[in-house]
Prior knowledge:
Elements: E1 3-12, E2 15-24, E3 35-40, E4 52-54, H1 56-64, E5 68-69, H2 71-80, H3 98-131
Parallel strand pairs: 1-5
Antiparallel strand pairs: 1-2, 2-3, 3-4
Amino acid sequence: MAMKIRLARGGSKKRPFYRIVATDSRMPRDGRFLEKLGTYNPLLPKDSEDRIKMDVERVKHWLSEGAQPTDRVARFLEAAGVIEKKTRSNPDKAKPGKKAQERADERASKAAAAAEASAAPAEEAAAEETAE
Length: 132
């Protein structure tokens, strides 16, 4: 049986609240689970102690049984020091899209043209002053 440690959503519309659960991976997200391991309330501030609560001993038990945490739960476990931090590499995430790059290039070329135009009259004025 493929076990997962994942989030099961609760709460009302636009007011999410999650339970951290150990479940069979074939079960629906909010469906049957084997054990509730903790809670996660994303509406609380990040420095709040009540934002994430877990029973670390039970989480370690399920990990030893072969349960795989989802990405979000793995981040919680890394922050709690239960599992080692993985290196994630997504270098394209920070790059702007194609249209944004085109707009930036266009802005840069306009700025360069404006700088050349403003530099040319200043050079001519300097040349006139030295000629007098």
